[in-house]
């Protein structure tokens, strides 16, 4: 296949994905009384936000963004979040689990399971209940991880915010069932049918800005359990014998910095990342420690209300 034909096929494929996502965004906004878009500051959030702005242009977004803030994100992520939303006049809600913060729950003393449950799952459920949101958009994709592959586009949650895979509704011919009773809610995934490579091709096509941590640079890291963990601030606890070293690394996925592994890379542009990905045989989420802290970890977290 010639390069020109290959590019045309890719653009056609992206156009189909874009149209489907915009349809889901508009359908949800019309169908639910009080939707919100979860914003994790990563590449998928940026693509989802870009699609939402396209879907409702020239009007402002008909829903706010919600960032569930663990307080342990990379400093560059906070800077990017604040500058991007301020520059585009986007309403941003930030929610933290104050009780867990007061108890000092952190990823070092309490382990990834307890930390994630308190700072992400419980915090998210608190925020949704506090504001009475009945639908929450998220940037999860089915290709990320096996429990996410089970998800419908409309993911029904009971009045406790919990997910039961056997109670999900069929979505034949892309028809979504958004009927809920009081206290119940829906998680909505407009990027369900996208892949990681689709996301990067779309970022390149639409020139979407992303956090610089996705691009390779010299960064201070320590080797821990087979992962390169970045020393992002003074709160990082070094183990006996650990000494940070400068490595040329980047991140394929972004979360809390003590729980996110970097990969060695020389990719400094979106084109470089796409080239690197076509040669990689390693999962995008290999560096997310919370995915591997117990058997069936992500599915158990999702059943409890994790996104």
UniProtKB/TrEMBL annotation:
Catalysed reactions listed for this entry: sulfate + ATP + H(+) = adenosine 5'-phosphosulfate + diphosphate
Any single biological process term in GO: sulfate assimilation
GO MF annotations in UniProt: ATP binding; sulfate adenylyltransferase (ATP) activity
Pathway: Sulfur metabolism; hydrogen sulfide biosynthesis; sulfite from sulfate: step 1/3
EC number in record: 2.7.7.4
InterPro entries: PAPS_reduct_dom (IPR002500), Rossmann-like_a/b/a_fold (IPR014729), SO4_adenylTrfase_ssu (IPR011784), Sulfate_adenylyltrnsfr_sub2 (IPR050128)
Keywords: ATP-binding, Nucleotide-binding, Nucleotidyltransferase, Transferase
Residues of the signal peptide: none
Domain annotation Phosphoadenosine phosphosulphate reductase: ranges: 34-261
Function, in words: With CysN forms the ATP sulfurylase (ATPS) that catalyzes the adenylation of sulfate producing adenosine 5'-phosphosulfate (APS) and diphosphate, the first enzymatic step in sulfur assimilation pathway. APS synthesis involves the formation of a high-energy phosphoric-sulfuric acid anhydride bond driven by GTP hydrolysis by CysN coupled to ATP hydrolysis by CysD.
Entries under NCBIfam families matching the protein: CysD, PRK05253.1, PRK12563.1
Subunit details: Heterodimer composed of CysD, the smaller subunit, and CysN.
HAMAP family: Sulf_adenylyltr_sub2
The protein's name: Sulfate adenylyltransferase subunit 2
